[in-house]
Amino acid sequence: MNAFFLGLRLLWGSGRRGRVRFLLMALGSALGVACLAAALTIPSILSAHDARTAAREPRPGDRNVVYREFRDPYGSQPFHRVFVARTSPGPTPVPPGIDKLPEAGEAIVSPKLVEILAANPRAAGLVPGHVIGTIAPEGLGGSDDLYAYIGTTRTKLAGGEQLGGFGIGRSWRQIVDPSTLNILRFTLGCIVLLPLVIFLSVCARLSGESRARRLAALRLVGLSVKDTLRVNAGESVVSAFVGAVFGVVGYLGVNEVMARVGLPGLHWYPADGRPDASTVAVCLLGCPALAWIVGQFSARRAALSPISVRRTGERKPPRKYGTLLLIPGLGVIGGYCVLSVMGRDPSGGSASSVLVPGAVLLTGAGLVFGLAPITAWLARRLAGVAKSLPVALAMRRTEVDPGSSLRVATGLVLLVFGASLTQGVLIELDQVSRRTAPVQEYKISLSELSAQQRQQLAQVPGVRMRVTAYSSWDPLDGTMRPHVDMLVATCAQLTGSTQWARGCVDGRIMQLHDANSSYPEDPQPGDRFPFETRDGRKITVTVPPERIDMRPYQPSVFRTSALLVPPALVPSNLADADGTLTLVSDAGPATIRGVLDGVGAIAPAASVDTVGIGIDALAQLTVIRSLLAVGMVLGLVIGVAAFVVSVADRAMERRGQVTALALLGARAGTLRVVQVVQVVLPLVVGLGAAIVTGWLAESSYLITGGGAVHWDWEGLPLLFVCALGVLVAAALASVPMVRRHIDPEHIRRD
After folding, report:
1. Which residues share a beta bridge with 442?
2. Which residues lie closer than 8 Å to 625 by C-beta, 6 or more apart?
3. Could you give the CA distance from residue 559 to residue 130 in angstroms, rounded to a whole number?
4. pLDDT digit string, tens, across residues 64-100
5. From CA 13, how far away is CA 3, in angstroms rounded?
6. Considering 354, 589, 670, 682, which has the largest number of Cβ atoms within 10 A of its Cβ?
7. Separation between Cα atoms, residue 94 and residue 713, nearest integer Å
8. DSSP 8-state symbol, 654
9. CA distances from 713 to 192, 332, 420, 705 (A)
């Protein structure tokens, strides 16, 4: 402990420079720990959301309440309604967040829904009844949740089932799917945690050369090796611990603000984002532990060979073993890319789910550990052929000390590498949830609509047309019986809702045919199919020989083998139980939201199927986009902070060399060019490698994911532009770091 406290006394007794260095190390650690706390609390926020949604899930039973759930999209956000009706007097189960279930004609809604109803009177039809209260936070997933409990009568609640209670062990409507959550954790780890480790290591090695010389002096005056290492640990560990405390406190303040602002698709309560005991322990103990480990390695040379440190002896070249990690990583990634080029599909199977993440980690580690030897080799080659004095000086200095490039460029290199992976994750998820058709269909069961509501739905702003469809009669006795769909529409409606249609003749019953689609029960001309009427009778329809060649948008109500029947020829008394009403509109987000609002105002209790849109998938994609955006921002902050700290530290450490060059007659412009080239070279090498390897890693992920997109050509120019912007900013930021100020103190030897 004496050696440990000796390190603190030397820190405060080393003058203003020592105290400034301690302050910078503490601030850097604080920034890093705040980012670490933010990354570690994201799973806690998602878990708290899922726990509250699981606690409110209704479960069937035999109580005196009948319920029915509706989960419809409100724009790109899920809107959840639970209609309840009493069947007999007595106590009823109560979900969390409210005191009692609403009676008939009453409603209890979430605070966000209250704002929507006040701002958009047309949306009031979504919640029939008088709003008597709001749901408390314990009954909502987040502050932006759209949820309502609506009281009604038993006669108006068709298809309801008896309620047993509320709460299930685990919600099946998780905000992020478990498999997707694993991908999210892996991606956030690559773009946040890996650069964070580099940044904290940089902060623990500030003023490394001057500290090594001071430790070597202590070793030469008789301090033991262990005590020398303890002296160094005293400064590093204390500064890291102080920074960790400030970082945790700073994150708590940011969480209070962000919880009230929220992210697109994700809002949480302040308590959800407060770190638990394990997260606080990791932040307060992990950062000092990392500083201690880094300090042990950085100070070992000064403790074991103090003479070479004091006399600036020749340094050992960087080890090249880290570069070998690129071989297996790129081998796996490149192998999948080659298979895709050859036309083979390597998607599916459990091997790729292990090989691809492992290859990504090996490639990222190879970029980190291989940057120094590759930069040293390139600098030696360039120095041998350079005709310019500034370039030659910069290359020789980079050759002598390539390890400094690791501290300067690694954070930004990993950020660009992680950005490629982020693009791949978003593309893969986007393929699952996005509908690319220019039209949008909304399917509603006819049994849930009155005749007046059907007429009103056709007048909803944004609706281009409506198509009524009926399915042929099925005895529902378990037998396999062929069936066909009857679409009541005109040729103009068919043409306006498909990519193209040829051979349609108005006034005739015709069969739709898509040569690129298969139909297991392909009806043949002359086949007869019964359709049930409201009075229970059967009407037989014969498949005509005439066909319409068409190409529908997928999925769509206009599918191959269906019968197109003109409105004038369809029987007027077909059973509503076998029919659906499909509304068609443009696919713009504002149009979809407007149509859904109009449908809800006219038929609030009707279940709307937005064809081709998975509302839960859309909501999940929005959440993942927000979380990945937060990860990219944190990674950018960490990378830029590591770069600024490293460049400033290098400039401070090399003031003696700059002074010596100035005494020898070097001009200010020469010194600035040397500084810029020393910074830009490792960045060019690292960013170039990150773009290539990151794009290949992204492609291998897309290839093994089984989606339609295998090569992200559109995202490649964006990576080049970002890398170019980083290089320009780094070059401009390096110029002020060189001062042509001659101070003999900088080259004095003890």
Report:
1. 583, 610
2. 264, 265, 426
3. 42
4. 888 888 887 765 578 888 888 888 888 888 889 888 8
5. 15
6. 682
7. 53
8. T
9. 25, 21, 11, 17
